[in-house]
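Sorry to interrupt, but I need a hand with the structure work. Could you add the entry underneath, on a fresh line?
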Amino acid sequence: MKAVYTFEATKRSETGRGEARALRREGQVPVILYSKRVQPISLAIQSNALTREYKKGGFRSKLIELKLEGKSFFALARDIQLHPVNDTIE
């Protein structure tokens, strides 16, 4: 299967507001991967790469490949939260 976007992801050990804020300060975006086959996985992706592809347009309708520890997961973006003032991805 060929993906339009490919991102390197790292697994997050903790979740919650404090952890998400710390990730954003480091230039990463918290991501959750949902699937019927596996439990939800909490991930982090580099913010600048994600923002660059999002601003090109049509992001939600294209296939995304998330590379995690040698495995590839394919997904579609369903919910993207933006900052209310400066429209950065949160």
